[in-house]
Amino acid sequence: MPRVIDAHVHLSERDDDGLWPYASRNGLEYTLDELLRLMMKNGVDRGLLLSPPIAEGRVLPNEEVLRLCKKSRGKLSPVLTVDPTAGKVRAALKLAEENRKAVKAFKIRLGYVKTFARNPVFDALYDYAESEGLPVLFHTGDTATSHGSLVHSHPLTLDALANAREEMAIVICHFGNPWFDDVAELVYKHPKVYADMSGLSVGGSKYASEYLGWLAGKISGAVYFAGGAEKVIFGTDYPVTTYSSALALVRRLKVDRRDKELILWRNAKKVFRL
């Protein structure tokens, strides 16, 4: 079984978690014990834990993410979610400083919060991320609710940020789905822009198999365009996508074995310093 790092998982163990419908659809218990079991079963050495959405447009507090990671026996590392207010930025930076050895990245929920990545409110966050070598993840592409803003979640909005912050690692979540070609250009153009494959195959459609093949073609094409897979990172978006589906997508990529290793774990190990 190949080695794997899952760079994008969610968990809360709360009844008001907004991802419960996905967990139910996938037949998942959506608990820490289940996640750790699935990681072991699928050869996943490490995972990055991100806040899931909870009631009223909020996300799980970062303190809870840190707590769950501590309970994971070293399997999960925290990514701090930061919303666009000065108070939220200050709080995230304080937590990051207090947990320097644990925190591996920050995340901004473009599309769920109606702001752009160049909002000056994030400047202090980006300064810290650059100085500490911490990547910043951005939700991009489709949103889980009809109320999300695609204008704000389009991946091309990150081009200006990458131009301004050339030393900061940027991770485009969900490969910008459905704007795969735009993400291919961003990954090719910018030395420190990466894309994760998380949450792409939700399942349930009568064309699920055909869709998986279409996704594999799009991501393989992005690898060809960029000249290699050094900028592509594996993730599930648990519980949105199952390990079986996410790993099946990697198997269907028309790239060589070395590139699949880069995608499955080598790139994440380097980018997140795991």
Q: Order of strands across the widest beta sheet?
A: 1-2-3-4-5-6-7-8
Order of helices and strands: EHHEHEHEHEHHEHEHEHH
For the record, what CATH class applies?
Alpha Beta
Average pLDDT: 96
CATH architecture: Alpha-Beta Barrel
CATH topology: TIM Barrel
Spans of at least 5 consecutive residues whose pLDDT stays below 50 are: none
The level of helicity is: 40-55%
Radius of gyration from the CA trace? 17 Å
Molecular structure report:
By secondary structure, the chain is an alpha/beta fold. The protein has one domain: Metal-dependent hydrolases (TIM Barrel), CATH 3.20.20.140. Helices cover 42% and strands 13% of the residues. It is built from eleven helices and eight strands. An eight-stranded parallel beta sheet has the order 1-2-3-4-5-6-7-8. Helix 9 links the parallel strand 7 and strand 8. Helix 8 runs parallel beside helix 9 and helix 9 packs across helix 10. The longest helix has 19 residues. The radius of gyration is 17 Å and the shape is globular. The two termini are 20 Å apart. The model has no long low-confidence stretch (mean pLDDT 96).
Task: Detail the topology: elements first, then pairings.
Elements (H helix, E strand, L loop, with lengths): L3 E7 L9 H6 L6 H10 L2 E7 L11 H10 L4 E6 L4 H13 L6 E4 L14 H10 L3 E3 L11 H4 L4 H7 L5 E3 L7 H10 L3 E4 L11 H19 L5 E2 L9 H10 L4 H15 L3
Parallel strand pairs: 1-2, 2-3, 3-4, 4-5, 5-6, 6-7, 7-8
Helix pairs in contact: 8-9, 9-10
